[in-house]
Amino acid sequence: MAENGEPPSASPDRRAIRVRVPGFSPSANGLRFANAFPSAPFWRLRFGSLVRVEIGDVATGLCGGMTFVAADLHRAGLPPPSDTSAPPDGAPLRALIRRRQLDSLDRGRLPLRFYSLASPLRPARETWWTRALGWLGIDLHSRMHVMVVREWPRIRRGLEAGRLVPLGVVRAVSANPLRLARHHQVLAWGYDLDGTRLALRIYDPNWPGDDEVTIALDLGDPDGDAAPASSRPDGPVVAFFRAPYRPAQRSGRPSLDR
To answer: Which of 50, 100, 110, 165 is most deeply packed, by most CB within 10 A?
Structure first.
């Protein structure tokens, strides 16, 4: 929907379109602290009184949990917490972000999606053989083709329906699964489309309170080798895709009481 809650608006030449999810902006609705947590185990498991297993490290980032919490709060009509620094280990807000980080992984399907799009086997440009493999159900389309033909229409439908859309941001081409931690998750809250030039407006947990963060891409040649560009110096953006989102339980009202 347009920023004022009306349908998306276009200029007289029907080329420039500006869409915003009503009632959302990173400065008003994003979490007020950056995705920068001191080193601590992501998960602790205890087996009896003697054996303790620690898994992961929150210092690698909780961007998925932060974007999900922001989406949950907006859906519930609640303001973000007043915290301006990352909540400490053991705090209810940290526990909530950690739970929603797990949810954002979609039972392992999200890391697999990152790994697939980061594959070096994908060509720089779309070719006849990638299309032929696609007809056989084998996805080795170029990243540009995937973004323009598959992902952008899904993202657009969600935003024009007034829904926030979580995005997976691929930041490196690599077959090494240990590099999955380099990828990122953000929350799309609008877009500007001028001809074929797209700018997705995003809430980026690495840039709290910043309403001007965008990911830009020229959609004009789905078979070409264009790459997205971030408006912030966080490193390269190789590709983006719509990530799955399910609202928090309890009728969408996130709980900070545990």
So the answer is: 165
